[in-house]
Write a structure and sequence with these properties.
Largest sheet: 4 strands, antiparallel
Number of domains: 1
Mean pLDDT: 89
Strand content: 5-15%
Helix content: over 70%
Strand order of the largest sheet: 1-2-3-4
Distance between the termini: 39 Å
Radius of gyration: 41 Å
Length: 169
């Protein structure tokens, strides 16, 4: 939204600058008299007064005009510098937001990996305790023992995988 506004403002300023840089310039002197310059001729209230003005008055009017044109050029340059700085700041902000999102994603993945590791480790611990308890009571057949050992080995493998995943982050 700001970019559209800035673009419209720049366009308007460029049109005004173009119109003011035409062959006709208006100059307002400090005492409030408005002069129009068309080429090298001076007009006041639509009447040509080139011959009536003194050389000093003409140079004063030209100096006022030159100062205004110089000021407008400086203003345009400053405006362009400001726009460039705004664009640069917008790019830097976008880059920082992107980096922040990437960092948040990395933190979230590490947290998920940590949670997964503890969950699998706790499950292995509980299964080991249950297996030891059942063996201690003598309630397991040789086939049951093989099944429990396979289950425990799978859980140990999952714990190792979860630990490796956690170390990657």
């Amino acid at each position: 939204m700001k970019n559209i506004f800035v673009l419209k403002l720049v366009t308007l300023f460029a049109v005004l600058l173009f119109l003011s840089c035409g062959s006709k310039e208006k100059v307002i002197t400090p005492n409030g008299i408005v002069y129009e310059l068309k080429g090298s001729k001076f007009y006041s209230n639509g009447e040509e007064i080139t011959e009536e003005l003194s050389r000093e008055k003409k140079s004063e009017i030209n100096e006022i005009l030159n100062n205004r044109i110089e000021f407008e050029k400086k203003a345009e340059k400053l405006k362009k510098e400001l726009e460039d700085a705004q664009n640069k700041a917008a790019k830097a902000l976008k880059k920082a937001e992107k980096e922040q999102k990437a960092l948040a994603k990395k933190v979230r993945r590490k947290d998920d990996a940590r949670k997964d590791f503890f969950k699998v480790r706790d499950k292995l611990k509980k299964q080991n305790e249950k297996y030891q308890r059942l063996i201690g009571k003598g309630k397991l057949s040789p086939d049951d023992i093989n099944g429990w050992e396979k289950t425990i080995k799978k859980l140990e493998k999952k714990v190792q995988d979860a630990e490796q995943k956690l170390k990657r982050y």
